[in-house]
Design goal:
alpha/beta, Molybdenum Cofactor Biosythetic Enzyme, Chain A, Molybdopterin biosynthesis moea protein, domain 2, Molybdopterin biosynthesis moeA protein, domain 3, 6-stranded mixed β-sheet, 30% strand, binds adenosine monophosphate, binds magnesium ion
Length: 405
């Protein structure tokens, strides 16, 4: 059976990048940069005071206490434009430019103004460079500060703003249609009758796809009817870069996703993965003008979450040009035995915490089965148990993939 990592590689290989677009800075959070961000100024842009106090020449404070002539003031947004000469000091505020001629700052606590502010006494000698951040020591003009392919975080918005990026070039958002299938489904507003259940996959898929940067069109769920499915897939694909279906990929008499895709002439890249939960996952491409990618995910809600995050999320991020398209991998210590399977790799929902020694501890969720999505709400990661491993013992170090928040 196809290994998970190989399936992810196929998804990456078959995913086309969308065009880039320009967005206003305040729209850029969560978007993927399509350009490197270059510093247009030095940081700091001038020699900057790190303390409130007095800018001085260190040599004038040797043998402190020393009394210096107070010749001016520099505050945030207002520099003192003269050049400091021997025996002089300038009152200075944190963040203000250190005047020419001065090489250090003494903090206000170790000073005292005298003669009605005409002079200042410095109690302790300064060392050259003390409390001064020299121009360009943090970033030099022309340096690359962020790279194309990074997703813009709130902190990165500040970096973009600092270097004058009122607009940023980012990958276009993929348009995704979400379609849950199953004749047992009722709407969240409705009371499930005998043998029915509320459609929950539409909502988790919508959330995950939006979290991955997509624009999502949720469709009303569809009954298990091949003709209907074919029509809905064809229509939704016209306006979608990717289509995420849940349900109908198993071997049941009423599982029509694959036959509908075949009937539409889709190219099917894989329809089985060595994965527990999530074996019957389908990945295909339609023959329409947009060459829409289709993810046919198994219907049970935990499988949906696991397979979306392993495969569909990767495609949506790759469409935006992201460099990191896979779930972040860490190592963790197992809190309890983890059960694997001989035939398939297991990706087991787990909670993560750290212990007092600073180690990451992964605890497999106690879950009744693959439909136990209530337990899954606590999952922060998936523990990877390789194919052919019956049990990994508590205390072992395992690979874990962090789920998106
Ligand atoms: P299927 O993959 O169609 O065989 O579905 C497997 C199981 O997942 C079904 O028996 C349902 O219990 C559940 N399921 C399928 N679709 C949904 C959905 N949209 N929301 C919640 N549960 C679902
Ligand atoms: Mg079904």
């Amino acid at each position: 059976m196809l290994p998970v990592t190989e399936a992810i590689r196929i998804v990456e290989e078959q995913t086309q990048r969308l065009d880039a677009e320009s967005v206003a800075l305040r729209e850029a959070r969560g978007r993927v940069l399509a350009e490197d961000v270059i510093a247009d100024t030095d940081l700091p842009p001038f020699d900057r005071a790190l303390m409130d106090g007095y800018a001085v020449r260190a040599e004038d404070t040797e043998g402190a206490p020393a009394t210096l002539r107070l010749v001016g003031e520099a505050a945030a947004g207002r520099s003192w434009r003269g050049e400091l000469k021997a025996g002089e000091a300038v009152r200075i505020m944190t963040g203000a430019p250190v005047p020419a001629g001065a090489d250090s700052v003494q903090q206000v606590e170790l000073t005292r103004e005298t003669q009605a502010g005409a002079t200042v006494e410095i109690d302790k000698a300064t060392a050259p460079g003390q409390f001064v951040t020299r121009r360009a020591t943090e970033i030099k003009k022309g340096e690359t500060v962020l790279r194309a392919g990074e997703r813009v975080s709130p902190a990165m918005l500040a970096a973009l703003a600092s270097f004058g990026y009122a607009r940023a070039r980012v990958g276009a958002r993929p348009r995704v249609a979400v379609l849950a299938t199953g004749s047992e489904l009722v709407r969240v507003e409705d009371e499930p009758g005998d043998a029915q259940l509320r459609d929950s996959n539409t909502y988790s898929l919508l959330g995950y796809a939006e979290a991955a940067g997509a624009t999502v069109e949720p469709m009303p769920f569809a009954a298990d009817d091949e003709g209907l499915l074919r029509r809905l897939i064809r229509d939704a694909a016209e306006r979608s870069d990717a289509l995420v279906l849940s349900g109908g990929v198993s071997m049941g008499v009423y599982d029509f996703t694959k036959s509908a895709l075949h009937a539409l002439g889709a190219e099917i890249f894989f329809d089985r993965v060595s994965l527990r939960p999530g074996k019957p996952t389908v990945f295909a491409r339609l023959a329409n003008a947009r060459r829409t990618l289709v993810f046919g995910l198994p219907g049970n809600p935990v499988s949906v979450s696991v397979t979306f995050n392993l495969f569909a999320r990767t495609a949506l991020l790759a469409m935006q040009g992201a460099t990191g398209t896979r779930l972040a991998e860490h190592h963790a210590v197992l809190a309890r035995d983890a059960k694997g399977s001989m035939e398939r790799a297991s990706y087991l929902p787990a909670t993560l915490r750290s212990d007092e020694r600073g180690r990451i501890i992964a605890e497999p969720l106690k879950w009744g089965g693959s439909s136990d999505f209530v337990a899954f709400t606590r999952a922060g990661a998936l523990i990877v148990v390789p194919e052919g491993t019956r049990t990994i013992a508590a205390g072992s170090v395992v690979s874990v993939l962090r789920l998106p928040d």
